[in-house]
Design brief:
4 helices; three-stranded antiparallel sheet; about 50% helix; single chain
Length: about 140
């Protein structure tokens, strides 16, 4: 009985077991924070690009310059040319007149850098995804004559 009590009182592996239990949770939180931070960075980049595109469009009334300004603003995003969709409303340059609204929408498919795969087929809106959609809309009055 004395040897059994001695084994129960031995605390040599306690910290290893605690670390094995806590480490996966801490890593999950760390990687989630990194994912959210990178997603927010992409969201800010897309919002800025949308603003730049609508500003150029209001001043020049040229679709090619709108798309060029958006493309230049998205240079830091991964594979931005293939993952970005630009919608201009109204699309026809001739139908836009001074004082009308110009609406530019930029949609970017953000690739998840750290993809969390949940066990047992569990799904949610944030996990088990290869990409997330970042969408930004900007409206400006046309100043071009």
């Amino acid at each position: 009985m004395h040897k059994f009590n001695a084994v129960l009182n031995n605390k040599k592996g306690q910290s290893t077991v605690e670390m094995a239990l806590v480490l996966p949770i801490l890593l999950f939180i760390l990687f989630a924070i990194i994912n959210v931070g990178l997603y927010m960075h992409a969201h800010l980049q897309v919002a800025f690009a949308t603003h730049q595109g609508v500003r150029i469009g209001a001043l020049t009334n040229e679709n090619s310059k709108i798309k060029g300004a958006i493309n230049n603003s998205l240079q830091n995003l991964q594979d931005h040319t293939a993952r970005t969709t630009v919608l201009i409303d109204p699309l026809n340059e001739a139908s836009r007149h001074r004082g009308d609204d110009l609406k530019v929408t930029v949609i970017y498919s953000y690739p998840m850098p750290i993809n969390f795969k949940m066990p047992f087929g569990v799904t949610s809106s944030f996990f088990n995804r290869d990409s997330m959609v970042v969408k930004s809309i900007a409206v400006a009055k046309i100043e071009y004559e």
